[in-house]
Amino acid sequence: MEKLEAFLNKFLGPIANWMSNNKFFSALSEAFMRTTPVTLGAALLLIIGNFPIPAWFNFVAESGLKVHFDAVIGGTINAISLFLVFNFAYVYAKNAKQNPLTAGLLALGSFLILMPQKIEVATLKETVTKFPSTAEVTNIESVEAYKTFFTGGTGLMVAILVGWLTAVLFVFLTKKNLVIRMPESVPTNVAESLSPTIISGIIFITFFIIRLLFAATPFESIFYFIYGLIQAPLQALTSSPLAIIVIFTIANLLWFFGIHPNMVYGVVMPMMMANGVANMNAASAGKPLPFLLMAVIGQVCGSGFGGQGGTYGLVISMFTAKSDRYKQLRKLAGPPVIFNVNEPLVFGAPLMLNPIFFLPMVLSPILMGSSAWLMVKLLSFTELNPLITLPWTTPAPILMGLQGGWKYLFIFLVALIINITLWFPFFKIADNKALAEEKELLSTLEG
Q1: What is the tens place of the pLDDT at every residue in 403-420?
Q2: Which residues contact 146 (CB under 8 A, 6 or more apart)?
Q3: Residue 365 near residue 249 (C-beta atoms within 8 A)
Q4: How high is the pLDDT of residue 443?
Q5: What is the 3 state secondary structure string of the chain?
Q6: Which of 145-149, 221-225, 422-426: highest mean pLDDT?
Q7: Is residue 33 over pLDDT 90?
Q8: How many C-beta atoms surround the C-beta of residue 286 within 10 A?
Q9: Residues 281-340 pLDDT 10s
Q10: Whole-model pTM?
Q11: Alpha carbon 141 to chain centroid, angstroms
């Protein structure tokens, strides 16, 4: 293990150091970490609202509480791009010794300028009371509103680009003295509010032009442009075991670069859900499941194994942490991962754009999916019961044990061992790096 760590350090260490000293990546890393209070608070309420006890789950739905728990998601997780675009510009400007608050506000405004601001709402001829059903659309109206589809994880890549470009422009133009100078008699707060007027105008005009350029394309906005680029290559994928592994690998790869996996799942999920229904129908009729491998591989590769990226292994590896940073992160972000809520870990570590964690993020679906595929064959596993459905927050060993007995639990254990083995050496590199930084800071303070 020490030789492996030394080998990985040799190749990943220089990259990590370069990114730590790079203005873009250092600011982005801090921006992600600054969202941790939001994601941690949301994680607590997410677990309460989706606690994996059927009686509680039904009570939340029937009592009307679900809409309020959903509002928590809407105000936190589904607004994460808003927090990030502000934080990124704020940190970048702060590091450049410029006004961070103004930079953050300008970035947030620019992000909203680029975003589609109308939602089409259809008026039906008659009320639909049964599903599935057909209804005649009599009118379509446009309602002025922002879609949480863009303010949440799907908009992260745009948020990163906007936050960076806004901050770069703000710092550059400020250094060029394109500010309004106020007399000394004017109060400081008033002067600071008025001085960047010219700069804010230039920045907003820049993003207004970008909006117009994308509006002239078939994509209509930069959000749909990025979504379309990702969606097209995925439409040819099928539901074969190999394709499922590829799908989750692509999802993790995109998540590493700040592109929410919903862009992938939005394309393939209807097909996977249809296959899941086919499994349920077959189980009801006492027939073999037509998409057994899809269900098993999807469970160990998807977000049901400690959240997106399969982070059970990372949290378990954190029990060996020597740095205070990862000890504290394990205490705060570890418990939600049990219930497949890992946003505090993803943004707190962070895992995104962190070269140390690139390989385990991308390789975990390949290795775990392949092992699950092999175990199904070796164990002749056919006992999966898809009719047992539980909330998405149900810990993987509980769900898999109930759905498939000891064989499915054994598949979980094999996947978990592979998951831990994959994450552990990379975590040790990150932990040692954090420990060295803490020692350096301590010696600086003492000296």
Answers
A1: 888 999 999 999 999 999
A2: 112, 115, 116, 117
A3: yes
A4: 78
A5: CHHHHHHHHHHHHHHHHHHHHCHHHHHHHHHHHCCHHHHHHHHHHHHHHCCCCHHHHHHHHHHCCHHHHHHHHHHCHHHHHHHHHHHHHHHHHHHCCCCHHHHHHHHHHHHHHHCCCEEEEEEECCCCCCCCCCCCEEEEEEEECCCHHHHCHHHHHHHHHHHHHHHHHHHHHHHCCCCCCCCCCCCHHHHHHHCCHHHHHHHHHHHHHHHHHHHCCCCCCHHHHHHHHHHHHHCCCCCCHHHHHHHHHHHHHHHHCCCCCHHHHHHHHHHHHHHHHHHHHHHHCCCCCCCHHHHHHHHHHCCCCCCCCCCHHHHHHHHHCCCHHHHHHHHHHHHHHHCCCCHHHHHHCCCCCCHHHHHHHHHHHHHHHHHHHHHHHHCCCCCCCCCCCCCCCCCHHHHHHHHHHHHHHHHHHHHHHHHHHHHHHHHHHHHHHHHHHHHHHHHHHHC
A6: 422-426
A7: no
A8: 6
A9: 787 677 888 888 888 998 888 888 888 888 899 999 999 999 988 998 888 888 888 888
A10: 0.66
A11: 32
List Cβ neighbours of 33 (8 Å cut-off, separation of 6 or more).
Answer: 347, 348, 350
Q: How many residues does the chain have?
A: 447
d(CA 403, CA 283): 12
Inform me whether the pLDDT recorded for 49 exceeds 60.
yes
Per residue in 260-283, pLDDT (tens digit) is: 776 677 667 656 766 776 777 787
